[in-house]
Amino acid sequence: MHLLESIAHWVKVTPDRLAHISDDRSISYGELGARSDALAAWLDGELGNRKVPVAILGHKEPEMLVTFLAAVKTGRPYVPIDKSTPPSRVERVLEISEAGMLLTPEKVASLSVSGGPYEASNRVSEGDPFYILFTSGSTGEPKGVVITLANLNHYLAWMTGDYAFAPGAEIFLNHAPFTFDLSVHDIYLSLSTGGTLFSLTKETTSDLKRMFELLRSSGITQWMATPSFAQMCMIEKRFNQEMLPGLHRFFFCGEVFAHETAVQLSERFPTARVFNTYGPTEATIAVTSVEITKEVLAEWNPLPIGRVMPGTRILIRAEDGREVAPGERGEIVIAGPNVSPGYLFRPDLTEKVFAAFEGTRSYRTGDWGRDRNGMVFCEGRMDNQIKLHGHRIELGDMESNLRALDEVADAVVLPVKKGDRIDSVAAFIVLSGQKAGSDFEQAAALKKQLSERVPPYMIPRKFFFLESFPMNANGKADRKKLAESLG
Ligand code: AMP
After folding, report:
1. Which of 367, 376, 384 to mutate to test the pocket of ligand 1 (most atoms within 8 A of CB)?
2. 143 lines ligand 1 (CB under 6 A)
3. What is the pLDDT of residues 261-309, one digit of tens each?
């Protein structure tokens, strides 16, 4: 059944059930169906035959879902942009994606009022782009990952096949922003199984008292989030099974799931099942999974990322492209129907990491990995991509944007670790002129300028000003030496 038909089924049989709750806003299945139909008709009227992406700038408003569904009903992919994105970066995303339309939740609320059922005869089909997510690119430009309906279907088929979701009864926590593909898991597993999506907004998660109050009354049964979010929650002693009695399954994805976090979590939620999953946006949410049982905890530290989903392969390759011997370390390469066609309008970037593979596509992840009898381990990055509190960032993206500032002659950005985890990012700066005031004042000035170019999570916390960078033997800035100076 087409994904839109699975959703339409719930619109028909449970029109009054809430499809989405986001802070004090909510939308029922009936409203979601009617409003996305009306918006779809409006989009056709505005865009005619142009099958261009539809961009929406917002956060987690119910109108985001209305727009996602409306776009794909008309055969157009959608591009979510978080409202925390500075205008210049929004502009770039619109240019790069060649979006035909930029909507906002306010605009959608004023448009999608009424109208008859929409005849979705041109809806997105298997091979068409379903959504485009922009991620950090190493040269300072965001890049758009194209995900087709077939890619998404492969993921949903795995999840619904291997994990039971009670039809019409689950409540899915949504912590990830809609610009991060963990949210795609929440949205479409929920809507296609008649569940309720329970979003935590950024405003809520920055007010912990309110967040725990909301969580307590949420009734959530399913959880997908980064380990960083669970760690944050565990600061609160009462974050446990008593607070969330219905929560019976945790999925983690997006960054290293530390052994210690897993131990603590299973103590807090003794009857819930906990899974570590792994995957990049380019291979649609996640491709491996493992249940973190007592036995797994006893056997492995660091934890594995699990076994690969059915119909997809993981290859561990050496630099020369050949597969390494079993158990040896190499690059994790993913091949299967879940692998994206590539980066939107960037054949140059696409060809570097994607390739045709036995009738499907393969993607070189840039992750070091190892396969022990089918149990896969992820052992960190081969490049300068990092995960900071769950956000995927290319250090090169931050550096390029810093170098673009008038006052900056050169910049190196490095992760600052607390134990094994990246806690923040520090910038080393060579100024093009005199320092304006104290280090603190100069740093504040640069942070302000940078905030006009990149999202808040891409602004370094600490700034160090140097006359020049130490050089390595190749005459490049010596990152190792700079890292040592961070202690
Ligand atoms: P994203 O595209 O934002 O999902 O980021 C993908 C990257 O996050 C992967 O290439 C890995 O480097 C990292 N990652 C995702 N899941 C895990 C995991 N379970 N353990 C370790 N790293 C992970």
Report:
1. 367
2. no
3. 999 999 999 999 999 999 999 999 999 999 999 999 999 999 999 999 9
Any idea what DSSP says for residue 39?
H
**What region, left, alpha or beta, does residue 336 occupy, with left being phi > 0 and alpha being psi -120 to 50 degrees?**
left
- In one-letter notation, the amino acid at residue 298 is A
Strands 421-431 and 408-418: antiparallel
Residues in the chain: 487
Atom of ligand 1 nearest to the CA of 380: 12
Taking the C-alpha atoms of 304, 307, 308 and 310 in order, what is their torsion angle to the nearest 10 degrees? -160
Q: How far is the CA of 279 from the centre of ligand 1 (A)?
A: 5
Burial of 319 (0-12, 13-18, 19+ CB in 10 A): exposed
In the chain, the domains with their CATH numbers are 3-372 (3.40.50.12780), 385-484 (3.30.300.30)
- How far away, in angstroms, is 161 Cα from ligand 1 center? 23
CA dist., res. 376 & res. 369, Å (int): 7
Mutate to test the pocket of ligand 1, among 378, 385, 395 (most ligand atoms within 8 A of CB): 378
Cα of 135 vs centre of ligand 1, distance in Å, is: 13
Q: Which residue's alpha carbon is nearest to atom 1 within ligand 1? A: 280
Tell me if the pTM is above 0.90.
yes
Express each pLDDT in 401-456 by its tens digit. 999 999 999 999 999 998 888 999 999 999 999 999 999 999 999 999 999 999 99
Tell me how far CA of residue 94 lies from CA of 124, 142, 393, 412, 458, in angstroms: 21, 11, 20, 28, 20
- pLDDT at site 419: 85
What are residue 145's DSSP bridge partners? 133, 343
Residue 102 token pair: 């930029």
- 8 Å CB contact between 382 and 353: no
CB-ligand 1 contact for 365 (6 Å cutoff): yes
